[in-house]
Amino acid sequence: MREGLPVTGVEGLDRRTVIVRVPATSANVGVGFDCLGVALDLTATFLLSPSDRLEIEGCEERFRGEDNLVWQSYLAACEKIGTRAVPLRIAILSPIPLSGGLGSSSACVIAGIGAAMALSPEGFDRERALKIAVTLEGHPDNVAPALLGGLVSSFVDGDVTTSTRMDVASSLRFVAVAPPYEVRTADARRVLPETVTRETAVWQMGRCVAVVRAFETGDATLLAAACHDRLHEPYRSQLIPDYEPLRTTALEAGASAFVISGSGSTMLAIADGDEVARRVADALTAARPSFWLRTLPANTLGTTVEVQ
Prior knowledge:
It is a single chain. With 308 residues, the protein is α+β, with helices and mostly antiparallel strands. It has helices spanning 69-81, 104-118, 126-137, 143-148, 185-190, 198-217, 220-226, 233-236, 243-252, 274-287; strands spanning 18-27, 36-50, 55-57, 88-93, 151-157, 160-166, 172-178, 257-260, 267-272, 292-296, 304-307. A hairpin with an 8-residue loop joins strand 1 (18-27) and strand 2. Helix 2 (104-118) crosses helix 3 (126-137), helix 6 (198-217) runs antiparallel to helix 7 and helix 9 packs antiparallel against helix 10 (274-287). It starts with 17 loop residues before the first strand and ends with a strand.
C-alpha cells in the first residue's frame, strides 16, 4: 500500500458495486510501433465494491495480495483525483490470456482507475481516466484503445497525450493465437536496435498511414501490401519460436496480415471476413492444437463503467 495514502475505516462505507468492462487490445498493429492500438471484442469484467478489508478473487493466488495491479491502480488513482481510498472486494472475470500481448495488464489498470473515479463525487470521466492510465502505464498504446474502442493512434508531448480514434471496418476479423509461454517486456525492448536508417523510417511512415486507411475501409489488399514492419517484428520474432511457422500457415490460409500483438507472445492474424477467418483459425489450430486461439471482431465501445 502506498505510504501516506489514507484508507478509511469501515463505518459508513459506500457499499455500491462498480462494474468495469474493459476490452482486450493489440498494440503496434504491425507497423504502428508504440503509437497504434486496436480494441478487440474480448472483454474483461471487474466487480469492485467497498469492503471491510481487501479481498481479491478470480485470479491466481500470487496476484491476490497488496501488489495486485487493480488494487495498486485504484490507490494511485485515488491519490491523483484527491479522494480517500477504502478497502475493496475485487472480483475479476477475465478471458484475456496472461501470456502477454492482449492488454491484460492495461485492463487491470483501467479497472482500478474506473473504480476510483466511479466512487468519487465527480464520477467516471474517460478523458481524465486516459491521462491517469498513461501516467501509470508509461505509454498509451494499450490503454487508449481499451478506453476508447476501435483503432487508436496516440502520441505524447510532455504530460499531454493526444489519442485519435477511428472506426474499424466491420468486415475485418482478428485471429488471436497465444502460445503457452511469455515474452518478457524487458527482453522485447532489449532486442530492439538503438537507431534506424532513414530508409527504414520512410518505409515505416508510409505503411503506417496505409494500414490505418486499410483498417478504416476494410481494404484487405492494401492491408496485405502495407502491413510489413521493419522496426520491431524482425527482432522480437526471434523471441517467439512459433512466429515464423504460424505466420506462414496464416498467410497461406488467406490472412491479409500476421503480426506480433504488442510485444508478444500473442500473435494476430488479420482476415477479411468470417469465411477467411475460419480457414485461418482452422489452419492455426491444426498447426498448434494446444495454443489458445480466438477469432474476434474489433470492439467499438471501449471501457464501460456502471455503478449499482
